Amino acid sequence: MPTTAPARRPQLPPLRKPPYEVGRSRLPNGLRLVTIETPHLHSAAISLYVRAGSRYETPRTNGLSHFVEHMLFRGSAQFPNSFALNLAIEEIGGTLYAETGRDYSLYQIPLQPAELPRGLEILGDLFSTPSFRDIDLERQIIIEEILEDLDDDGRNVNLDDLSRLAAWDGHPLGFTITGPLRNVRRFKTDEVRAHFEHFYSASNMVLCVAGPFRHGRVTAQARAAFASVPRGRPTRTEPPRIPSDGPRFRVIHNESAQTQVQILFHAIPESDPDYLALRALARVLDDGMSTRLHYQICDQKGLAYSVSGNLCSYHDSALIEIDAGCAHAKLPDLVGEGLSILARFRDEPVSEAELDKAKRRFRADLEACYDDLDSLCGWFGGTELYARPRSQEQRARELDRVRPEDIRRAARRVIRAERLCVVVVGALDRAVARKVSTIVREFR
User: N or C end of the chain: which has fewer CB within 10 A?
Assistant: First the structure.
């Protein structure tokens, strides 16, 4: 792709000083509290992160973390039903948002700063005395959610689910978040409650509060609101094994107008010294329409309307991925070009121009976080579940030190045949499937 190398390496602009302060404390029951004081903003957010998700489940319990998330909306001792709970939250200007991931669950309430004590009271009651009412009604809602990912024959055709299943091969990171229908149809209230009591303990959660208030004030209010949450024990899990039998190739037939594909390589976790170089690689790969992936696959070769590249990270593992959809017949060329783009990172150094652009855009994204409570809570609160997060200034300095040879070294560690997994969902004929299989199998 066309790039113009600068005569000398341009000076990166200094990162604007963050207009917030981060405070930390541990409540008497072991609950970790992170506060982000943002005097420049006129809104607030309460976020509760829990070390619960599909990676902590077994084949028999798969889906329980997601089931618990749904059931918590059904009320608590103070709120007799879902209407009363949601009304109380909406009266203080908020909406209860929740999500379950593979290695965490999140509950969040945006609200007016003056309503912080009431918001903490509501959330504290919900996690101290959940009612778990109306399980059969909630079960039907979850089943409807699962059906969105199934075809007419009842097979899961969700590409994210299928690619993780193929990549992680038996490890719980490969489980679906919602769980299989047979589990969801079987779960009883006592199982939901037991799962909640095991994972939703103070030692297994991080409470993050962002807004224009002092850490000491929030600490006193949080202590009162969450005093009844039991201490419990932190959840532990085994890191996944990186397969050595690759490359892997899976095709799932689905009648559709386009074929969807993900190209995955098992990568390295944040604790690895080369992680920041890999993060820079991901930015050079795909961070706008002028970066390699979109420019070469869409603009220059017309192989897809859209394509994305990403580094999907967990605390102990990661995947670098390319995700795209294309006409069925174009799939061999698309897979071949995607693999070629990634292989070039290990075969030749990126240009200084590309790397400097990636660093500038990274800095811009960091500064945009200063005004985004969700991003600040995720950076400092979500990360705290597993490790003390670096400050944004520290992360910017670390990325500034990444050089082209660092990216090449990281790529040589990651872009390897034995780490490769390609998963396809679409209406491929046998000839096209064989072509793609050959491309994947012969990748070196």
Answer: C
Contact 252, 157 (CB under 8 A): yes
**Tens-place pLDDT, residues 255-291:** 999 999 999 999 999 999 999 999 999 999 999 999 9
Q: Contact, 11 vs 177, CB < 8 A?
A: no
Tokens of 273: 């010294």
Q: What is the pLDDT of residues 297-352, one digit of tens each?
A: 999 999 999 999 999 999 999 999 999 999 999 999 999 999 999 999 999 999 99
Tell me the residue type at 272. Answer: D
Residue intervals of the chain classified under CATH 3.30.830.10 are 21-225, 248-441
Cα(371)–Cα(37) distance, integer angstroms? 12
Place of tokens 């029951």: 29
How does pLDDT run across 403-431, given as a tens digit for each residue?
999 999 999 999 999 999 999 999 999 99
The amino acid at residue 287 is: D
Fold of 248-441: Cytochrome Bc1 Complex; Chain A, domain 1 (3.30.830)
Q: How far apart (Å, rounded) are the C-alpha atoms in residues 268 and 242?
A: 10
Domain 21-225: give its CATH code: 3.30.830.10
Global confidence as pTM:
0.94
Quick one: three-class SS letters along the chain? Answer: CCCCCCCCCCCCCCCCCCCCEEEEEECCCCCEEEEEECCCCCCEEEEEEECCCHHHCCCCCCCHHHHHHHHHCCCECCCCCHHHHHHHHHHCCCCCEEEECCCCEEEEEEECHHHHHHHHHHHHHHHHCECCCCHHHHHHHHHHHHHCCECCCCCECCHHHHHHHHHHCCCHHHCCCCCCHHHHHHCCHHHHHHHHHHHCCHHHEEEEEEECCCHHHHHHHHHHHCCCCCCCCCCCCCCCCCCCCCCEEEEEECCCCCEEEEEEEECCCCCCCCHHHHHHHHHHHCCCCCCHHHHHHHHHCCCCCCEEEEEEECCCCEEEEEEEEECHHHHHHHHHHHHHHHHHHHHCCCCHHHHHHHHHHHHHHHHHHCCCHHHHHHHHHHHHHCCCCCCHHHHHHHHHCCCHHHHHHHHHHHCCHHHEEEEEEECCCHHHHHHHHHHHHCCC
